[in-house]
Amino acid sequence: MDGVSAREHNKRMLKLGGRWAVQARKALRRPKPPPELGYLIVWYDDIRGGMPTSMGVNALSHSEIFAYRELHTMQMDSFDVDTLRRLDGVWLSCIPKNES
User: Fold this and answer.
1) What is residue 8's predicted lDDT score, i.e. its pLDDT?
2) Left, alpha or beta for 12 (phi > 0: left; psi -120 to 50: alpha)?
3) What is the pTM assigned to this prediction?
4) Within 13 Å of residue 98, how many CA atoms lie on the same side as its CB?
5) pLDDT single digits (tens) 54-78
6) DSSP characters over 82-96
7) What is the pLDDT of residues 1-20, one digit of tens each?
């Protein structure tokens, strides 16, 4: 995406019609995450956005999370790390097998 939120991206896709509209409509109906966990969504998007995909898509590792934490000198507890890895598992499960 070009620096816009996923919601804005899906609104644009909805206007295109066709199969893009079907996928966007489904995405727009999904429940929003609780605001208390919004920081994890931002962190995950930032970490995942900086990962190369030229050799395929791999699961987010503990070392990548650790490197992100160190780079940004932030505090993370085990809940944060577990949640980031679970988000990644959900994200990976949405990728068609021929793209991973």
Assistant:
1) 76
2) alpha
3) 0.64
4) 0
5) 667 788 999 999 999 999 999 999 9
6) HHHHHHHHHHHHTS-
7) 456 677 777 777 777 777 77
Classify burial at 54, counting beta carbons within 10 Å of its beta carbon; exposed 0-12, middle 13-18, buried 19 or more. exposed
Distance CA(95)–CA(88), nearest Å, equals 11
Which has more pLDDT, 17 or 35? 35
| Helix, coil or strand: residue 1 | coil
- Give yes or no for a contact between 28 and 53, defined as CB atoms under 8 angstroms apart: no
Please give the helix or strand (H or E) that residue 26 lies within, else none: helix 18-29
Which amino acid makes up residue 87? L
Read off the tokens for 31.
Answer: 């429940």
Cβ 84 vs Cβ 67: under 8 Å: no
Q: 89 and 97 in contact (C-beta within 8 Å)?
A: no
